[in-house]
Write a structure and sequence with these properties.
By secondary structure, the protein is mostly helical. Helix content is 71%, strand content 0%. Helix 1 packs antiparallel against helix 6, helix 4 packs antiparallel against helix 5 and helix 5 packs across helix 6. The longest helix has 40 residues.
Length: 180
């Protein structure tokens, strides 16, 4: 039987979807100026550090499928890549319970870079014959994405922590006081 999803998993998924919509709006504006930010690394670190493995994989997979549905990439690219990053982070960062400090940010930067390099390679392989590869554009997007990831991820991790704190305080406030 399927166990009930925890509020933490649902709130993490909702936060991921909200951030992806903000990122889409951001890209809509900057895309007109020739720049695209790709930040899939934003969506696995919180689940890797705050959720149990099963719920982390579910939330990360659903977020990845959401990103796949919104992009012209092969369906499953983000879902598979994000779950791989989640598993690598959990394995390499055993005991990593806090998202503060340098080590979690390095995992996030490395995961984002790996997904961007894979995406760039996929883009170059699917170019029509006799067309010029947009290496400058890919390099600029990669550098801009990696630079933007750090401040956005600091905000996003804090945002998700805040959501969970609010949900916990709401749950505690709703519980009836014990009768003596």
């Amino acid at each position: 039987p399927m166990s009930r999803p925890t509020p933490a998993a649902l709130l993490t998924l909702a936060g991921n979807l909200f951030a992806s919509l903000l990122l889409a709006s951001w890209n809509d504006y900057w895309g007109r100026h020739g720049l695209h930010f790709h930040l899939p690394g934003l969506f696995f670190l919180f689940a890797a550090t705050r959720l149990d493995l099963r719920r982390g994989i579910i939330v990360t997979s659903l977020t990845g499928l959401w990103l796949d549905a919104a992009t012209p990439l092969p369906f499953g690219f983000h879902a598979f890549g994000l779950v791989l990053c989640l598993l690598a982070t959990r394995e390499a960062g055993e005991g990593l319970r806090f998202v503060r400090g340098l080590r979690p940010m390095l995992y996030q930067q490395a995961g984002n870079l790996a997904l961007l390099l894979l995406l760039g390679t996929l883009s170059l392989l699917t170019l029509p014959e006799n067309s010029e590869p947009p290496l400058l554009r890919l390099g600029l997007d990669l550098a801009a994405s990696q630079l933007l990831l750090l401040p956005v991820s600091l905000w996003f991790l804090s945002f998700q922590d805040r959501i969970l704190q609010c949900a916990r305080s709401e749950t505690i406030a709703e519980e009836p006081a014990p009768v003596e």
